[in-house]
Amino acid sequence: MIRGGFRRLISAKAASEPSLSFEEATKLARSGAPDERCVVAADPNTKPELLYFLARDSSPKVRSAVASHLATPRQADLLLALDESPDVRLLVAEKVTKQVRSLGQDEAAQLWQLTVSVLEALAKDDLVKVRQLVAETAKGLEKIPKPIAYSLAKDREPDVAVPALAYPGRFVDEELVSVVEGSHDSRIVTAVARRPMIGIKVSEAVVVRGDEAAITALLSNKSAQIDSQTLDRVIEQAASHPAWHEALVNLPSLPASAVAKLSGIVSATLGGVLRGRRDIDRSATADDRVSFPSAPPTETIIPEVLIPNEDPLARARRLQADGRLDEDIIVDTLGTDLDFTIAALSIRSRLPPAVVAKILSSHSAKGLTSLAWKSGYSMRLALQLQIRIGRLPPKARLTSSGGTWPLAQSEMDWQIDFFKSLAESA
User: CA torsion sign, 387 to 393 to 394 to 395?
Assistant: First the structure.
């Protein structure tokens, strides 16, 4: 409230008085009363050298005006980022974190380095709100230096650490394990569990330190690596955690031994999903409760030959030409090879890849179902798209009985046209 009232007061003064000449502004900056120096500091036409001079003013009100000024040189912002007044530091944080989004690393090397220095100072501030502003900036900008993002990811305050852990740059596994082991808040562990491409050690740390929400996030993270021992530990506790069941059933590369254990825990519906998986070695299961559909005796199943470094689109075209771009191929790659999924569904549906990508990222049950229909596949794929790509909870999914589509053809045509228009406008 104090800072808001101050802003309104200074804005009103600046709006009601004409800009001062440089000579007048210099005189007031050096010998004027605090209110007069505030007017100089708030004037949009005040020269950067005067703003730098006023950044050392004895009055917090004057320094606050300089901190808010868009023309304040970055050297002065660095001084103000270390100011004794929390209000001044917060004003600098609000301004610089907005400016940094439009500032390129190659725009001016000296300006960028000074900006990084300001961010480094703000990232260590005593005020949680200041650190949070920098963390929210790091959340969407890979150009933020990694040491700054990592220092914020290790913050004990979840309002700071959670957005910092969404930093698009790469953290190595040892760093993420350190974050988990040093955290006392499950929200931070959950944020680690959602990171892309986390390794075995990170997954193990999440299972050891995390609660139900964190482990659910880990199991739903299709790019996470989970070894058999960690997975066994989760399955041993799964009976009392129904929230994990769906994610466990849909884990990529699920060992047959895990299937045997899960079959006695999960619901009949999820058990059907287990039985429908074609990527599990049937001969390896030792539990009679698990049954898998056998191929007809006359059918010869020829495994796909994988070509090293083959482009996803080239692979999809090759499979289509061979008549083998079937539903099972798509299901097997869901969550593990998004580029191939987009290419395959684009070929099958005859929709541009941009449209397919837009539908897959939409979290729309109707859109995903319509895409499966447009591609000539069944409701089985539509449901898998909703579960493994859309990550939709059970109540949000479209299902059907008897293999019929839950939407009319006109509705599915409308959905396809709608996403076409979205892709074109983007």
Answer: negative
